[in-house]
Design a protein that fits this description.
The protein is an alpha+beta fold. Helix content is 26%, strand content 16%. It has helices at residues 30-33, 70-80, 91-97, 132-139, 150-154, 205-208, 210-217, 219-230, 241-244; strands spanning 14-18, 24-29, 100-102, 108-110, 112-113, 116-117, 120-121, 130-131, 157-163, 169-175. The protein has a 4-stranded mixed beta sheet. It has a two-stranded antiparallel ribbon with strand order 3-4. Helix 7 (210-217) crosses helix 8 (219-230). The longest helix is centred in the last third of the chain and has 12 residues, at 219-230. The chain starts with 13 loop residues before the first strand and ends with a helix.
């Protein structure tokens, strides 16, 4: 008998269905959405530099957050005005120099201070290390995703929309991969969706990132997704590659 062919290293299972309202097809990375991935910032996250950098407590904030559009900018600026000196280490710096920069192509990102995002409080700050916007939102009993740049609250989810020649939209929702950071992503020493260290959550991603998914795809599509995933019970036919390799 021929030797069994091993599965590809990055084998994933997908779920697809038509949007109940729009002329759109949805495709979901079931392998990731059913996995127990969880953000481990402050609990073993090695960051996205070229070497292990857990002690810096930068997570994926070592680079300025790219703003999606004008609404994204306005939202962050409005919430930044609610931050106090006790919540935001670099508040005075932002008032002097601004909280974002714009490159020659018009791309706007949050300003960097000493090698990381201006909103990132560093180890030793009285309020603790971490995103000032996130900290203030929690303190105000509000959702951090309503305060932060879009890319920050979406990670590690990624939605990609592609229209065909006839205008039909296909929207793919999957895990964020190194390639999504551009060429520099392949230089990271560590990336969380590749590491078994981050697959330690108590709930599957579609539950733990309930709010984020609804913001991305809408409540109606989310309900269809949940119904299909729950119909499977706890069956995961293709475990996540990061877990499968261990």
């Amino acid at each position: 008998m021929p030797a069994p062919v091993p599965p590809p290293d990055d084998l994933h299972e997908w779920l697809s269905f038509e949007d109940p309202v729009e002329d759109r097809t949805w495709m979901f990375d079931v392998t990731f959405l059913l996995s127990p991935w969880s953000c481990i910032y402050g609990h073993g996250c090695q960051g996205v530099l070229t070497g292990p950098a857990e002690a810096l407590a930068q997570g994926c904030c070592s680079y300025g957050a790219h703003f999606l559009d004008d609404d994204d900018v306005v939202n962050v600026v409005e919430h930044a005005t609610r931050l106090t000196d006790e919540q935001w280490q670099f508040r005075k710096r932002a008032k002097r120099s601004g909280l974002m920069t714009t490159d020659a192509d018009g791309v706007r990102t949050t300003r960097l201070v000493d090698g990381a995002c201006i909103f990132l409080n560093r180890p030793g700050f009285a309020a603790g290390a971490g995103c000032a916007l996130h900290y203030a939102a929690v303190s105000a009993d509000e959702r951090p995703l309503d305060w932060k740049p879009n890319v920050c609250w979406q990670l590690p989810l990624r939605q990609h929309d592609e229209s065909d020649d006839y205008g039909h939209m296909t929207s793919t929702v999957r895990e964020w991969k190194r390639r999504d950071w551009g060429p520099g992503g392949f230089e990271f020493h560590w990336w969380c969706t590749e590491s078994p260290d981050a697959f330690v959550g108590h709930d599957p991603v579609y539950v733990s990132m309930h709010d984020e998914l609804i913001e991305l795809i809408g409540a109606e599509v989310y309900d269809v997704l949940v119904t299909q995933l729950r119909a499977r019970g706890r069956r995961v036919s293709i475990p996540h590659p990061a877990v499968r390799r261990t």
